[in-house]
Each structure stands twice: as structure tokens, then as C-alpha cells.
Amino acid sequence: IRRDGTVTDTRSPFFTGEILWALARLHLTFPDAGFDEPALRVRRYLVEDRDATEAPWPPVSDHWGAYAFETMSRWPEPPGLTDGERDWLDR
Asked: Does pTM surpass 0.90?
């Protein structure tokens, strides 16, 4: 947002990871409310599609996404990691 109140046409390269972390924390806090399904969809998008779709340059090392993965590891039934997710976390 600019000083004059107008909004720029850009967005944070961390937006997707921030959303994932929020959903992961919501599921951790409210495990029966259904936040796990959208969190897992965003997680797949973050790892498999985000860089190609949003074309950040250089590719983003998304600390918010990493926080989300850590939070998901504490879910009542934590999802395992795919090879692609391990690669994403290692970059």
C-alpha cells in the first residue's frame, strides 16, 4: 500500500507460505474444524506449482512455508513428507 492509500499490483513472495502456516496452525488448534484439507492443498501447490505459476526470481526460500511444515509435524495425525517436499525443504 502506498502512502496515498492506493494499492500496488504486487504481492509478497511469501504470501503462499504465510497462508499455509495460518491454516496449519488453525488445524493444530482446531483439529476437527476441517482446516487440514485446505492446508494440504496449499502445501502441494507451494511445493509443486508455486514457482512455475508465480515465477519468483530468484526462487524463494520460503521461511513461512518451513514454519508451516514444522507446525504440520505436530498435527494429531501428521502427514509424511514426499521426496519433492524434502527437496523443497532442503533448498
From this structure: no
